[in-house]
Specification:
The chain has 378 residues and is of the alpha+beta class. The chain is 45% helix and 12% strand. The relative contact order is 0.09.
Length: 378
């Protein structure tokens, strides 16, 4: 006699079906609740009033490693200066870097300019409309490709960033480290299973806003959360524990000594950082890097300083306390040395023109402080 497997394993089959429909119900409920919250609480942002992939791409690149409040003015400046991808492609890189100044992570600006040229010259100004082709663009990763594909082209590709990790880990109780290979795959799969297929762009923007405004890193607003009755972190009081992240890479300390050269005729020297690494293609004063903080005597007796063509000079330290500039994996302990000299072979930039050069924010902050004092030196 042939035994019907469904008859034999009826309890197991029922359990699978019930589990599936419960999971499906949870996912549908999550999506609808999230989008409902979004319609009531969303932030009014300029790039949300358009489906133009150029504007969406521009905003997403800017908001990588940048708060929305900080990125707004830069977005306005870029869209006004470069209304189309053709305008950005035709721009001089120095202008792009100057307008980017203060946002940090300058490789984003260089990649932005490179990709604009590629789209203008090779794609006739048309952005790819699918995730895979978008991700192939320089400077565009999984998150940015998903955002552009879903918002501009209504493709169901889920975004996963810090906000999304936090929301999903807390609500669904996932303790897999978000910066592990396993965690990246797990959260991406979960986000993809939750996305609203009919309005993926709205869903993606909703979950990002929810993480930024409601399910914040510190002091999340659990009392007014639409998921408070089903949220694992709320039930178990683990908001401060989730998401889990593996320990960061050890921070490296570096010690910078900038020589701010002042000649009698109001000239100085700026060098462009051409090597790969931090601040590529930005400008800075002549730099001597040391193994620790050093006094004036050690600086002027160093081989790097003696190699410079100084004849007559006076040197003084501008900042008594070193400026500590923190980057993701390194902290720069910086001293600015004012070097007054009658002339200097490399000093060919007028102080009036220094502000026109794209410089790191560390340098820009110094120039703001120093500008009010420079008259006393010239």
């Amino acid at each position: 006699m042939i035994i019907n497997p469904f008859q034999k394993n009826k309890p197991i089959i029922y359990l699978i079906i019930i589990t599936y429909f419960c999971a499906f119900s949870v996912f549908m409920s999550f999506s609808s609740q999230l989008i409902s919250w979004y319609h009531e609480n969303k932030r009014e942002l300029p790039w949300r009033s358009t489906k133009n992939p150029y504007h969406i791409w521009l905003s997403e690149i800017m908001l990588q490693q940048t708060r929305v409040a900080q990125g707004l003015s830069y977005y306005a400046t870029f869209t006004e200066t470069f209304p189309t991808v053709f305008d950005l492609a035709a721009a001089d890189e120095q202008l792009v870097l100057k307008l980017w100044q203060g946002l940090g992570y300058y490789s984003r600006a260089r990649n932005l300019h490179f990709t604009a040229k590629h789209i203008a010259e090779n794609l006739e100004g048309e952005f790819p409309s699918d995730f895979k082709s978008l991700k192939a663009l320089k400077g565009v990763g999984d998150y940015t490709a998903s955002a552009i594909a879903s918002i501009a082209f209504n493709q169901p590709n889920a975004v996963v960033d810090g906000n999304v990790y936090r929301v999903l880990s807390r609500i669904f109780g996932i303790d897999t480290p978000i910066n592990s290979t396993e965690g990246i795959k797990e959260f991406k799969a979960l986000a993809q299973s939750l996305i609203d297929q009919k309005q993926p762009g709205t869903f993606n923007q909703a979950i990002m806003d929810f993480g930024a405004m409601q399910c914040k890193p510190a002091n999340p607003d659990c009392g007014n959360c639409p998921f408070q009755n089903s949220c694992y972190a709320k039930k178990e009081d683990k908001q401060d524990v989730l998401p889990v992240k593996l320990k960061k890479t050890k921070v490296r300390k570096r010690f910078f000594n900038y020589l701010v050269i002042l000649t009698e005729d109001g000239k100085t020297q700026l060098n462009q950082r051409t090597s790969k690494g931090i601040w590529q293609n930005l400008y800075e004063f002549p730099l001597i890097e040391s193994s620790n903080l050093i006094p004036e005597s050690e600086l002027i007796n160093s081989s790097d300083f003696k190699a410079l063509p100084f004849k007559n000079f006076e040197i003084s330290l501008f900042n008594e306390k070193p400026v500590v500039h923190k980057l993701s994996h390194q902290h720069l302990h910086t001293q600015f040395w004012i070097v007054e000299t009658s002339n200097f072979d490399g000093a060919n930039i007028s102080w009036r023109d220094v502000q026109d050069y794209p410089v790191p924010v560390l340098m820009a902050n110094f120039l703001k402080q120093f500008s009010s004092n420079i008259k006393s030196f010239l």
